[in-house]
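Teaching assistant here, posting this on the class forum so everyone can see the example we discussed in section. The complex has two components, and the goal was to see what a joint structure prediction looks like when all of them are supplied at once.
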Amino acid sequence: MKKKSFYIFINGKKIKAKKGETILEVARKNNIEIPTLCYHPDLKEKASCRICVVEIKGKNRLVTSCSTEVQEGMEILTNSRRVKKARKINLELLFSQHKEECYDCVWQNNCQLLELAKKYKVTINRFKDRKTNYPVYQFGPAIIFDSSKCIDCRNCVEICEKQGVGFLEVKETKDHHLFKVVPRKDKVCVYCGQCLIHCPAGAFEGVGEFEEIEKPLNEKNKIVVVQFAPSIRTSIGEEFGMAYGEVVTGKIAAVLKKLGFDKVFDTSVGADFTTTEESKEIVERIKSNKNLPSLTSCCPAWVRYIEYYYPEFIHNLTTVRSPQVILGGLIKTYWAEKQKINPKNIVVVSIMPCIAKKYEITRPELKIKGMKPVDYVLTTRELARLIKRKKINFKKIKPEKLDNIFGNPSGAGVIYGASGGVMESAFRTTYEILTKKTLKRIDFKPMRGMKGIKKAEIKINGKVRKIAVVNGLGNAKKLLEEIKSNPKEKYTCIEVMACPGGCIGGGGQPIPTNKEIRKKRAQSLYTIDKKKHIRKAHKNPIVEKIYKEFLEKEKSLAHSILHTSYSKKTKEKIKKLK
Amino acid sequence: MKRENIITKLKKEKLTGRSGSSFPTWLKWQLVKKEKAEKKFIICNGSEGEPGTFKDGFILQNHPNEVIEGIKIALEFLDNSTAYIYLRKDYYKRFAYKLKKLTRNLAINIVKKQGGYLSGEETAICEAIEGKVALPRPKPPYPTQKGLWGYPTLVNNVETFYWVAKIAKNEYKNQKFFSISGDIKNPGVFQLPEKWTIKKVLQETKNIPNFDFFVQAGGGAAGEILLPNQLNRQIKGIATIIVFNRKKIDLFQLMKKWNNFFLRENCDKCTPCREGAFRIAEMLQKKKLDNKTLKDLFFVLDATSLCPLGKIMVNPFKSLIENLL
C-alpha cells in the first residue's frame, strides 16, 4: 500500500513528507540537521536524551523529532530560540553525569557530545560530575565499561538484550533513587562489543584500546608478522574520512609495512583453510549423520554464547579453528620451518573487526606445542589510532602488495567478513567435494544481505538440505529455540555471526556503525570476490600446496593447527578496576 | 439509550477527565470511536497515585455500581471492546473481590497496578497490562490511536466513569469529588460543584483555618502553592487540597519531601527529569537555591520532559519559591 504523502513546513520551507515518517527522518532526508545522542537507527527510539527536540507551531511543549511522526501541514522549527536553549541546558545536564576523558575515548575524533557543546555554547562543567565515583568494570580480556561516562541513554542495555544476552541491566541505587547501568552477576558477557558500537558517550572501550596498541611494535629481536581480517579492507578507510565501503586492501598492506611489521599476511587466506577443512568436516558429518546441524565457529562471541547459554549445542560446533587462529598456527609451523626461523621468535599480530577476538586468542586449547598461534589482537579502530599516532597519511599512502605466501586469498576468503560469507564459501567447496562436479553458479545470493535469519534449501546429490545464516545473537537465540521446540526442523548447516551484518558490523569496527554503513562495507567485499580469478577456497594454490606438502603428511600436527575443542562455561567474577 | 447519544450528552454537560488533565471526555470517546480497528480497549484508571488524593478510593468504596455502569456504556459505545479496571495495590486488595463479583458477566477485567506513581500514567498502564515494565511510552501515538497491544484505547479515570453513568441517567449536577486534608478539622472526600473556588470549598466544608496558612492545590506533589489571598480560583488539575500551617511547617523539609517523591517515582529515563530532580536535591541539601539554575531546570522540565511527571515537578517548587521564599 502506498503511504499517503503531504506537505509539512520545516523552518518555513515547504517539504514533502510521508505519513508514518518521523520529523527526524524527513529532516535528515532534506539535509536539515537535527542533533541526536540516544538515537541509533539499529534501536527503538527511546527519546530519552531530549537533544533532538524541536518546536511545533501551536504546541507549548517541545517534542522529540526522533519519536514524533509528521502530520499534514505541521509547522516545525528545528532551531528556534527555545529549541537552542533547551538543547543547551539538557547538554549541560548530560555533561554533569559524564566524566570527560577525551584523550582516550573511542569517540576521540568524532565525539557528538563535544561537537554539540561547541555548537550550543555549553558550559560543560556547569554542574559537578555526579558520577566521578562510579565503578569501572572489565569484562574478560575484551571490554572495559566505565560507568562514570554513561549518560543513561540505555542503548547498551537494549542492544545487549537484543543480542539475546541481557548481561547489562539498569538498577535502582540508594543514591537519590538514581538508576545505573550494571552488569548482571547471573549472566556472562560474550564480548561481542555491540554495547560499545551503540554507546554515544564512549563508556565502553576495548581492553588496551589506548594503552597497549604500540606493544606489538616494541617486540625487540622478533619477527613480527601481521595479518588482517577480511572485513577491515572495506571499513578502516572511514577512520580517515574515506567513503563508506571503500576498498583499501593495498593501503592497509603499505601502512602496516610502514609501521614496521616484518610481514603482512591476509587472514582471508586463513579463511580459505577454514573453509576447506570445515567442508571436509561437514561432508563427514553428513555421511555419518552425526552432530548435525553443523554450526560455524569462526565467531568467538557466538562460540562463547553456545558454551555458556546453550551448552547442549556444543557438539554441533564445527571443531575447525577460526581463520586468524589457523593462519597464526601455519605461520608458526609451516612458514617458520620454510623460513628457517625459530617459531618462538615469531610474534603474530591480528588486525580484527572484533573485540571477542582478543578473548579468543587467550583460549588455552588453541596452543600448538605450547605456543599461542596469535599473540596480539588489535581492532580496526586500534590500528587506525596507531596510524594516526604515528602520523602516517593513510589516504595518500601508495598501495602495496601483501607478502607471500599468505597474501593472496580466494574470493571466498574475502566474503567471510559479511553475514552469509562463510556459508557461501563452504557451499562452493562442499558442493564440489560431494558432487565431484564443478560449481558453475558461484554466487549464492539467498545467503547475502542484512536480514537477521536467512534460510534456504539446496539440492545436493538429489537430497534437499536446509541451511540457515544468522547475524545478531538475538536471532541466533530465536533459531536455537526454534530447533529445540521443533526437532523435525532439520538443518544441515547454520552460520552464525554475533554482530549485526557479520564482522563488517563487529565490535572492533569504526564508529558510527549502522545498517546503511554495514551494507556498504558488505557490498564492497562481494565486489572484491567478483573480481577474483579464484573464488573457491579449496582452489587457492597455497591451500592446495600446504595440504599436499604438509597437512596431509603430518596428520597429528595438522589436527592441532586446524581443530580445537569447546567446553561448557560457567559464571565468572566480574572484575572491578575502580 | 442510543449509542451515539452519549457523545451528545457528554458534550452538552462538558464533562472533562477527572484525572486532573481536564481533557474533554466526549472528544476522547469520539477519537477512539473514529479509529478503525478490529478491536478496542477501555481502561478505567484506579491507580490514584497523587499524594493527598483519595477520592477514587472513596468512589470505589461507595459507588462501584455507577463506575461499572459508566464502563458498560463505553463497552456498548465501542465495537468489539474489552475493559480493564486498573487498581492501585491497596485498592485491589480492598475492592477487587467486590468488583469481580459485580462484573462477572461483563467484558471487564480487574488488574492490579504494577510499580509506583508513573505506572498510573495512561501509556504506562498499557505497558503494565501487556506484562511489561510499567513505564510511560513516548507520545504520540496517544492511547486513543495506539494503546493497549497497539489498539485504540479509551483511558478514563474512575471518577470520570462514575459521572458518565450519572450523565446517562440525567443525574449530573456539574459536581466533582474533592479530597481535602492537612492541618484542618474536617478532612475527607466531598462532592461539591466543580465551579466552586478553593476558598468556597474550604468555607463550605468548614475547613478555613484560623491561623496563618497556605494550601497546596491540585495534588500533594504536583499541586501549586497558594496563599490565602490567592484562593478565589478553581483548582488547576486534580481536585485535591492540602492545608498547611505556615508557622509549623519547615519549607525546606516540605520541598525535600516533594523532591524525594519525584526522585523515587521518576523513571530516570529522560535527561531533564533525572538530572533536574537530582540537582534540585543537591540545592535543597545545601539549603541554597540558585535562581538562575532553577529557572533553567524548570524550563527544560516544563518544555522537554518525556512524560508529564517532569512537567508537573515545576508547579510546587515554582509557586512555593514565588509565594513563600
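For the discussion questions: Residues 308-324 of chain B form the longest helix (17 residues). The first strand of chain B starts at residue 40 and ends at 46. Think about how each of these relates to the inputs above.
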